[in-house]
Every structure is written in C-alpha cells, then in structure tokens.
Amino acid sequence: MKSVLGWLGRRTLLYLAIVAALGFYVLVWPTASTYVGQGSLRQDIASGESLGAQTRSALAASVSRWEALGENIETLPGDAVAARLKAAQSDLDRLQAEDREGGGWLDSVRPSRIVDNYRRKLQIGLLTREIGLLQAARSRQAASAALAPLAQVPTQRAIATAEARCTRAARDLQNHNRRNPVDRTARDWIYGQGPQLEERRDDQCRLAETLSSRREAGIAAARTLMQANARYDALAAQSADALRQVNSGAGQATLRDLMEKAALLLIGILLAPYAIRLLFWFVLAPMAMRRGAIRVAVPGGRGPPVRQSTPSAVSTAIVLQPGEELLVRQNYLQTLSEAVESRTKWLLDARHPLSSMASGMMFLTRIRGDGQELTVSDTQNAFAEVAIIDLPAGSACVLQPRALAAVVQQRNAPMRITSHWRLFSLNAWLTMQLRFLVFHGPARLVLKGGRGVRVEPAAEGRILGQEQMVGFSADLAYSVTRNETFWPYFLGKESLLKDRVRGGEGVLIVEESPLASQRGGVRGGLEGMVDAGLKAFGL
Question: What are phi and psi of 503, to 5 degrees?
Fold first, then answer.
C-alpha cells in the first residue's frame, strides 16, 4: 500500500511540475522576456528614492506642458486646430486602451513600469486638457467667422427710423385705398400712384425687417463669441491640480522592497529551525520528561516473561508442534516439506482488518503439519534477519505488526490481539504513537528487522532511538526522554527525543538497524506521511 501511494504521489508531483512549467511559459515568460530584453533590471532594482525622483520629474514636465498649452493653441489657424484635435483624440484613445489592458504580473512592483504607467496617466490628463482647449478654440473661431460679416450692426435708432418709414408708407397706401373708386382708378391709371405706394411700403418694411434681423444676428454672434472666449480663457487658466492628483505609485512596494522582504523572510526561515530547536531543547523536552509515562495494563499482569528463543539470523527453522499452525507473509517462506498442508489466510486478525492490511499481514500462507520443519527468511532484502520470540500463555507484549514475518499459534486457540488508545497522553503525541497493539500468548512470533532483532531486559530502564523500537513487554512504562547531546541535535544530526522503557522485569524488543535507514534515512514526502500515519496507529 505504501509503495502504491508513493508511486501515485511521485507521479502527481511530476504532473504538477509539468503544469507549473507550462504555466510559467505561457503566463510569466512573455513578461519576463520583455523585462530582460529591455535591459531595465538596474532601474527596476532601484530604491524608492530614485522612483520618487523620477515621478517628481515627470510631474514637473507635465505641469509645464499643461501651463503652456493655452498659449500654444491660441495662435493656431483653423486647419491646424482641426488636424491637431484629430491627432490628440487618436492618441488619447490609444493611451486609454493601453491603460485598460493593464500589464504583466510584475508591472505593479517594477519601478520602470510604475514610472511608465504614471507618465501614461499624466499624458492622458494632458491630452484631455488639450482636446478641451482645441474644441474651445474651434468654437471661438467658428463664432468669429459668423460675426465677421456682421461687423457693422445697425443701431436701434436706425431700426426705429426704418420702422417709422414703413408705418408711414403703409398709412399712405391705406389712405389711397380709401379714396373714391373712380378717383383711385384714375390716379392709378394716369399717375400709377397705387403701385408706387405699395412698392414704397414693401421696400421700407423690408428694410426695417433686414436691419432688425441683422442686429439680432450680430448680437447673437457676439454673445456666442464672448461665451467661446470665456470658455477658452477658463480652460487656459485651469490649474494643474488634476495632474497633481494622479497616483504616482511612488509609495507602493517595489521589486526592491519585495527582494528585501524576501531576504528577511529567507533569513527568518533559515534561523527559525534553530530557534525552534532551542525552544524544544530547553522548554518542551523538560516538560515532556516530567509527564507521566504510558502503561498498557493487561488483565492478569505481565504473566510469564517474554523471551527470545533463537538469535537473529538470515533464516530460522521452525518445527510445528502438534496442534500448531504457521501464518507467514509472502516472500518469507523459503523452504517447506512436501507433507505440509498449505492454504491462504486473508487476514492476520479478522477483528482488526484495517490494521492487518496496513501492516502487510494479509494474504498470508497458512501451513499445518505436525512435526514438519519449515525455513523462514526474507527472500528479497539482503539486510533483513529474523528471530523467534516466545509468548507463553498468559504473557503479552506491545508490538508493531510491521515487524512480524510469521506467527506460530494453536489451531484451536488463535493468538489474540487487543487495541489500546492513548489519545490524551502527551508522551503518545510526542512519540506519534496514539494506539498500541498488544499480542497475547500462547504464540511464537517470528520478527524481522534490519541486521536482526534483539531482546533486552528493561529492569534498569533502556533508552533507544524511536525508529529502533519494535515492542516491549506489556505493563512497562513507556515514555520519552531528551537526547543525550545538545550540539548534534542543534545541528540537525540527531532527533530531540528518544524512547524510554523502564519499570519492571519485562523486555525490550529492538531492531538493530531499521530498514528505513538502509533506504537512505527517514523517507519524506507522501511516503514519509504514510509511515508517520502507520506509526500513529501502532502499525
């Protein structure tokens, strides 16, 4: 199971690395290549003072241009105003489009990009002002052109005189039309008086209307010109506060600030483990040593002592006594007699199925045959040795199932396994073993380990590395203690805590050289997490 999870974890990490590489090439590299190609690295690692100087210089230049725009545009002819207005509108549209698009991931912290963005915003402000002045200048020129033909505006007196003449001519025509029809007809036929009076009336009234319309048009044109001049003068006199209110970005974090913060974080990350080790050595470890030890009590006490019947060796021979059977892992059965009966046993203990599967004690080979001899050996690992531990009836020991290679038990009285949790013990959390599995006799346990397994008496108390611990007699005190030497621990060569077993006549079961260390040390990543999880559950 651990190998499968490790394989999946490594392939998942490889897949994530490929995704990260493709993401960098698609999202980051275009910006990074532009960044490198423009040669702005020296500028982008400049200090905040340099950034402030550049933004102040850009603002001063823009303010000067702002104040000179009114005088420059005032003297432009009509065609030049139209051409410049069209060019300014085109430039404004382009800059606004660039501003909406934004930039790359690093543009918000690169001083060169900050200055460029600031200059673009200043240019947008200048172009907005220039377009307003050009539009006002064009309106003023149009008003002047409309007023030019109306330079001599009739006076009110001249209009009144013309209107009086129109009135008299209309009255004369009216009086003529009131004459006797014969007299009126004679005067019209002989002298043409009626048409003359009518023509004079039309001429005088038309002149009055022309003078009045011309006066109204001239006054309106003058008013329009005055308004255009006032608008232009107001725009020309407008202060540059709009430019000064543009955010320069000089106070925000720059690439140099991020690099400095990253350097401080790096120093903190490098020094943090040593500070934590000092805290653990002088504070946590003494507190842990003062906490009560873990005792896994079993009914009836310790019972007969656990003993090692055969020393560790590359292989060991087992003779099945009447009524016994052998449960052995795959790849651990080296030789057997043809007279034995072999079957498959799915799990070591059906009451602990997950524990049996996680520790590898599944798909076991069950062998029966009174008086038959079998040889148990690790057929794959050249460094592994096996040893036989006797559990007499009534005895019990705490054991990690990972160390089991085979079990010899009575057919009618299978070995019993009990589970004991210690969730509220500080020592359990410090050793990362929250559950303890206790194996009850009678049984013979074939244990495997790197360079063998050794049984030591725990009468005076024993201290050993946490990875070497395989098991111990039930009802012994199990706790932690601080490492003997400070500097190896401080430099990361040794662990802070070691296991300690004491408090009785029981034994300690030790793996000589843990197989994990022969694979290059404690495994990291997903496999290391799996190992830690198995240990927490007593496996």
Answer: 105, 25
Within 8 A by CB and 6+ apart from 370, the residues are: 320, 321, 322, 323, 324
Helix (H, G, I), strand (E, B) or coil at 385: strand
Strand 443-450 and strand 404-410: pairing?
antiparallel
Residue 435 has pLDDT above 80, yes or no: yes
Rounded-to-integer distance, Cα 235 and Cα 214, Å: 31
Paired with 455 in beta bridges are 509
Which of 353, 473, 466, 356 is closest to 407 using CA atoms?
356
CB atoms within 10 A of CB 492: 10
Q: What is the pLDDT of residue 39?
A: 46
Rama region for 371: left / alpha / beta (φ>0; ψ in -120 to 50; rest): left
Report pLDDT for 445: 92
Q: What is the pLDDT of residues 184-193, one digit of tens each?
A: 777 778 777 7
For residue 172, pLDDT over 70 is answered with yes
Query: Cα(439)–Cα(419) distance, rounded to whole angstroms?
Result: 9
Interhelix angle 193-236/156-177, rounded to 10 degrees, is 160
Strand order in the sheet with 294-295: 294-295, 477-482, 497-502, 462-464
Contact 320, 326 (CB under 8 A): yes
**Residue linked to tokens 């064009």:** 138
Which DSSP string do the residues of 303-355 spell out, in sequence order? -SPPEEEEEEESEEEEEPPTTEEEEE-TT-EEE--TT-EEEEEEES-TTSHHH
Phi/psi of residue 55, each to 5°?
-70, -35
> Which single residue is written with the structure tokens 């545009």?
73
Total number of residues shown for the chain: 539
Give pLDDT, residue 257: 65
Torsion of CA 328, 331, 333, 334, to 10 degrees: -170
Contact 452, 464 (CB under 8 A): no
Which tokens is 129 given?
């002002």
pLDDT tens profile 32-72: 555 554 445 555 555 566 767 777 788 788 888 887 887 78
Q: Which two tokens stand for residue 147?
A: 């007023």
Q: Please, which residues have CB within 8 angstroms of residue 204's CB and are 6 or more apart in sequence?
A: 162, 165, 166, 168, 169
Which value, in Å, is the radius of gyration of the alpha carbons in the chain? 52
169 vs 200: CA distance, rounded Å: 6
Tell me the three state secondary structure of residue 391. Answer: strand
